[in-house]
Write a structure and sequence with these properties.
Immunoglobulin-like, alpha+beta, globular, about 100 residues, four-stranded mixed sheet, about 15% helix
């Protein structure tokens, strides 16, 4: 009986050592200059740092670059009551000069 417990414990510990497979996809990257806009479609959304980028509410969402930096933004594709959420990594750079 003791051998069964040790075997079960070692199998449990070995399962912890294997990293779980990630099913999430990487965010789509958007490179924008300050003041530029990118139409992403979908229904509204939100950006983590509104000082870097904003996103319009309603249908046909648009991301607007505010200042240099990086933030994550997301928008729902498929309507306000369903669909999937698309994630964007927004990288904003300042205009030269």
């Amino acid at each position: 009986m003791r051998t069964d417990l040790l075997l079960a414990a070692s199998l449990s510990l070995s399962a912890l050592a294997v990293p779980a497979a990630s099913t999430a996809e990487e965010p789509q990257r958007l490179d924008l200059k300050v003041g530029a806009k990118a139409a992403i479609g979908g229904f509204g959304g939100i950006c983590d740092d509104l000082g870097v980028a904003t996103i319009t509410a309603g249908t046909s969402a648009t991301i607007t670059a505010v200042k240099a930096g990086t933030t994550l933004c997301s928008s729902r594709v498929g309507g306000p009551d369903g669909g999937v959420r698309k994630i964007y990594k927004v990288v904003v750079t300042a205009e030269k000069g």
